[in-house]
Each structure stands twice: as structure tokens, then as C-alpha cells.
Amino acid sequence: MTHVLLIAGALPQPAVLKASLEKFRAAGATVELVGLFAGEDIEPGLGLGGLRSLTEAAAERGPVFEKRVAKLSGPRRIWACIEQDRQVRRFGRRAQVLVALDAPAVYAVWRLAQRNRRADAVFGIAPALKALEARRERPVHYALRDAARTVPSPVVAARSTRRAARRGAGAALRRASSPAVMRTALGAKAWRTAVVAPKVPDRLRAKLARRVSTSMAKGGRKAGATMVLNAAAQRTANRALRADLLAEAARADLARGHDDPALRSTACKAALALADQRYQQGDAKGAAAALSSALTLAFHRSVHFDRLTSPLAADPAGYLAPFHASAAFRALGAPRGRTRPAAPAPVGRPLRLLVTTYSNDNFLQPIRDRYADHPGVEIRFLDLKDDETLRPLAKGGQRMMEYALGGQKAFGDQVEAALRPHLDWADTVFVDWCTNAAALFTLADPGTTRIVVRLHSYEAFTFWPHLVDTSRVDDMVFVGDHLRDLVVETLPRLAEPGAPGLHVIANAMDLERFQRDKDSADIRFTLGLVGVSAVAKDPRWALEVLRLLRERDERYRLVVIGNGLDRKASPAARAYDDLLQKDLAELADAVELVGRTEDVPGALTRVGVILSSSVRESFHCGLVEGAVSGALPVVRDWPFFAGKENGARTLFPADWVVGSEREAADRILAMTASEEDWREATAAAAKHSLATWDWSVISPRFDRLLLGD
Question: Is residue 701 a part of any domain in this protein?
């Protein structure tokens, strides 16, 4: 019986495949088929001797392999899957005829023919049938030829020998540098010494350092895993390798819940130096990759979000000084401008308003409702995450950087084509959150369309505002003066001539619905905290206030409304939550965790004192909603902004704001000493909140901004 192996780069046409198989069977051959197609796409009952989908074979090897081979060209992808699949290699070893059904399969047939020199390697069905016919007519000739070709070709034999040697050496190295070895002090010290040994080639040193670092981390020596990468970087002359090793060391440091500012700064500076070198060489792709590495380190969530301090808030200019000194970074923010200025509001027809965001529309509903019913406005809403064309473009942060540096022309063309219908329709685009949606919309020339971007708080501690071309933004909106001040410090171009108009307008809040009766006088002893899903909310501060109050009166208790911390966010968040859980266990009898609720106004009827315990806030809607509900507002002087020109003390009435847990406890004790004092203080707070921040008060400011009223 003659064995034939068919290899296809794509699904064969069913009719052609069926007819071919009938001819092979008539010639006395058993046929096996493999290729880049789904097995279920092959019609059953064709009489195949074997069938293997290379697509499914890649998936079986796991997502890492599947992702790696997906980047290869068609011919290389076919061979990479075959080389790792025992079943297909077995098909190849016993085949007398190897057949490429299409051009992408030719390379795989050639590689298999080097291993199986007995087989005829052909391209197409007709040559395969001809090879079968020749074997049938001259059986003795082919028997002798096959016997002489039982050994693989010298090239394959040499390659196999080298591969076996590498495998043996690699296995020995893996055993010698295993996590078990790294758990011992002697083993860890020996490998640290080996990594920094003199005269080791850079690439070998980097490879060894990465292997040792991984084993150390698995062996429980996470600090050592960081140290070995850093030490290898110091001995590496190659600028790109050195920058990569430093970045990996800084990321490993953050991944273990630690942050070495000196290491992180060194890694950022190395990446920026590499970005500048590549930018000067005209390598936009390489420069963008290095910039992306520096920015993701500088704005890592563990540095700004999952701890109670931020170097950016403490000294914005100093923290970002290395970036502002980088030529590549300055080019990233260089104004591209617009061909025409934004047109004034139209006359004789409604203004066309496009409201857009990426995924987060939490603060947009009152705005959308207002202009949906406005006779002078035609409104559309666009969530980029829900748009099949725009979603992948909006995720391309590094591609945006590369485009800004002069590369990725095709990406720019895609963005232009996807956004142009929206820009041509709209008179004004209101982008909520200064993140990827804002960056994407300013990649395209807006023409005469006016662009308005609103920044809350989160974005100020990310790299996204630095990717926004502010020369194409007409107005920027901040929800607090303190946020405006911080962003202007981090983005100095906002203070230059031609910068967007800067506006401070509070969040849109329908506050009247929070006005509910609080019948019981004992409610004044219940503290409330709304929203504790981030470390920045610092609920431990509120628990310390509760401790101080209960030292005086055990009637005080705390209600926590909202989801708890995401422990999986980072090791730093997990470390904070560990401490929080101990506090909660200690005060279990005095704390009630309500969790997330859709009826926040109802939940607030049980609260007599509303706390803002955060280290930073853009505005803190939950606090104001609590104040309107009739709870006494107590606001921590948010540490990120305390002592600066603007902050909690300039946003809220002075008597609401306290500088410490003790001051908070004293304010609460004084204002809740009697029901009369409490009700008087809460009534004044509710009146002030409604008169200052209710949507009926704020909405005319949005009209002036968006409609030109």
C-alpha cells in the first residue's frame, strides 16, 4: 500500500478534493490530509486514512504557541505547526508521496522531504498521480532507491545533532538554575556572581539573567529576581538590551509589591535615551516601543493608584523632567494643528452634538438626557468600545505614539477613515475622559468640528493626556480647580499661546432625588462611606475616625456602600487590603458592608455623617449626594492636593474639611452632640450643595460651553 500525504495552506475546494481522493484510491493509495483549516470543514465519509487540522493542533499547544505562530507567514506557520505535532510527523515519515496542494504548503513539503528522502515531493494533484504511476510501473527501481535513502539528508542530520546538543545543554542549565537551587543561599549567590562575570557577551548575559531571575522568583527570592536583572543591566553595554533589562527589573520590583524609585527612574531614563537615539535615526517604530516602555513604567498603577502617595502629585515638574528633556517625547506632543479653525455654532438648524467615550459613561447620562430634549440640539452617542471598527484602533496606544513620531501611515489612514463620518456629521464632539478616545480623535484633523475634552482625575495619573494633540482640542473641561492645576503642571503646553480654553465645571448630578426624610435622631451616630473600590479612597482612614469616636461613645458605627477593593489589581492593592481586612475584623461589630446597590438614595437614608476619606478626588460625588441626603459632610483635606493653591479646602466650605482623623472625630462629636445641632448643620450643608452643584445650577454652564449660549 502506498501512502500519500496531502498538505494544504487553506481549505481545499470540496469538489476538487473529493475527485482527487477517488483517483488516489483507484491508484491503490491511502491518503492523509493536513492543513490550516478546521477539521469540521472537511466533508465526512471521504475515505481519508488520516486527517489533522494544524489550526486545532496549534490551539492544543496553548495560547502562547498559538500567538507566536500567528505572527508567522503562511509557509512558516504551516511548518511550525507540523514540526511540533507528532501525528503529522508520523504521517510524513511513512509517506511515499508528499503533495503540496497550494503554494503556502510547498515549504513544509520540502522540509519533510529532507527528513523522508524516500518520498517523492511534488506540487499539485497531477504530479502526485504521475509519481504514483511511476512507482507502480517500476517497483524494483523504487524499492532499491528507497532502501538507499533510509538516512535523512546531511543537512537534517547536522541540524538534528545541533538541536540535540542544545537540548542537552539547555536541560543541564535548567537543572543547575532551577527554583530549588535558587532557594538555597549558596545557589542564589553563585548565579548572581555568574550573571555579572566579566567578558560575558551582552546577549548571553541578558539571556542568563532572565533565566536566573525567573528561577529566583519561582524559588521565593523575588527581591533577588529584581537585583539580578538590575546587576546584569549595569554590566551590559548594548543600549537596547540594557534598557530592556532595567525595565524588566523595575517591573519585577513592582510586581512584588515594592517600588524602588531610583531603579524605576533609571529604567525610564534608559528607555528615553534609547527612544531619542532611535528617533534621531528615523526609526519611529523603535522609538515608540522605547517611549511606551518608559511611559508605562512612569505611570504604572502601583506607583499612583494602589498606594496612598504619588510622586507625580508631590512634584509634577520634577517627576516628568526626564520626559520633557527627551526629544522623542517632545515630538510625541508636538502640535500637528488643524487645517481650518472650528466653526461657530450653526444658524438656522440644531447644533449636531456627538458625545463619545471609551467604555465609561458613568457621568454622561444627565448630559445626554438634557440635550436629547433640547430643541436646539441633535445629539448622538458613540461608545468606541462598542464600535467594531474603532475599538481596535482605540487600543493602539503604541501605534498612536509611532504615528505621532512619523510612522504607521496605514494606521493613520484607518483612523481617518473610521472617524471622518463622525467628524463630518458633528458640529461639536464632547469626549468624556481624557484617555484613548481623546487621543484617537485628535489623531485626525477635525476640520471645522469643535473638539471638547473632559478630564476627571484618573487620567491625570496616566500617560493618555500626553498622547492627546491639544492643538486640535478647542476646550478642556476639568471637574475641579485642583485637577486643572495638576494637569497644567504635567502638560506645560496647556499654558502656552494657542492652547485650548480651560474650564472648571462640576460633574452633572441630579441631587434632588437624594432628598429623603431621616426620621430617627439616632441616625446621626451612623457614619457613611460611599465607594471604596480603590486604594485612593483610603477606607482605613475612616475606620480610624470610627475608633476615635467609639472611645467616647460606642453608639457610633460605619456603613460602607459599594464594592470592596480588587485584590487582584496589584500586589500593592493586596497589601493594603490585607491591612484593611484586619481593621474590619477588629471593628466587625461596628461596621456594616452594604456592597453595591442601585438604590444609593435609599441606602443614604440610614447615614447621618458622610465621609470623604480619600487621598485624592476629582470632585467626590458620593460626598455631595450624602450631604444633600441630610448627612453631615466631613472631608479629609485630600493629601494629594493639601497645601496647594486649590484642593478640598477651596472646593468645599471650610468647616467641612479636616486635616486629620482627630479633627474629623472632633467635628463629628461637636455636630452630633444633640439632634438639634446635627439637623441644623445637615440642613445648611444640603442647602449649600443643592444651590452649588445640582444639575439645574450646573447645566447652564454646559449650555454655554457646548452650545455657545
Answer: no
Structural domain includes residue 590: yes
> Residue 285 has which C-alpha cell?
517604530
What cell numbers appear for 468 in the block? 492627546
- Looking at the fold, whether 203 and 69 belong to one and the same domain comes out as no
Cα separation, 197 vs 330, in Å, equals 38
Residues 298, 268 contacting (CB under 8 angstroms) = yes
Q: Cα–Cα distance between 438 and 473 in angstroms, integer?
A: 9
Find out whether 7 and 35 touch, Cβ atoms under 8 Å: yes
Q: Cell for 318?
A: 520634577
Q: What DSSP element (H or E) covers 609?
A: strand 609-612
| C-alpha Rg value of the chain to the nearest Å | 33
The H or E element spanning position 291 is helix 284-298
Q: Which comes out higher in pLDDT, residue 161 or 653?
A: 653
| Residue whose C-alpha cell is 482627630 | 662
Provide CB contacts within 8 A for 407, sequence distance 6+: 284, 285, 288
Residue whose C-alpha cell reads 473638539 in the numeric block: 451
Same domain, 280 and 391: no
Do 526 and 559 meet the contact criterion of CB atoms below 8 Å apart?
A: yes
In Å, what is the CA distance from 164 to each residue of 157, 167, 169, 176? 10, 5, 9, 18
End-to-end CA distance of the chain: 88
Tell me how far apart the alpha carbons of residues 134 and 108 are, in angstroms, rounded to a whole number.
Answer: 23
Residues facing residue 636 across a β-bridge: 658
Q: Which of 288, 321, 312, 265 minimizes the C-alpha distance to 403?
A: 288
540 shares its domain with 492: no
Tell me how far CA of residue 36 lies from CA of 39, 74, 260, in angstroms: 9, 9, 48
Whether the pLDDT of residue 547 is over 70: the answer is yes
**Mean pLDDT within 113-119:** 86
Task: Assess whether pLDDT exceeds 60 at residue 160.
Answer: no
The CATH number of the domain where 675 resides is what? 3.40.50.2000
292 lies in the same domain as 411? no
Q: What are phi and psi of 432, to 5 degrees?
A: -90, 135
Instruction: Return the half-sphere exposure (C-beta side, CA atoms, 13 A cut-off) of residue 573.
Output: 19
Tell me how far apart the alpha carbons of residues 457 and 641 are, in angstroms, rounded to a whole number: 12
pLDDT, residue 188, reads 85
pLDDT (tens digit, 9 = 90+) per residue, 70-90? 888 889 999 999 988 889 888
**Model confidence pLDDT, tens digit, residues 22-77:** 888 888 889 999 999 888 888 888 888 899 999 888 888 888 888 888 888 889 99
Residue 163 has pLDDT above 60, yes or no: no
Q: Considering only CA atoms, which of 553, 679, 551 is closest in space to residue 609?
A: 679
Is 12 inside any structural domain? yes
Q: Which domain holds residue 530?
A: 513-693
In total, how many domains does the chain have?
Answer: 4
DSSP state of 705: I
Query: Which segments of 349-505 are extended strands (E)?
Result: 351-357, 377-383, 428-432, 450-455, 475-478, 501-504
Q: State which amino acid sits at residue 362.
A: N
Res. 201: pLDDT tops 80 = yes
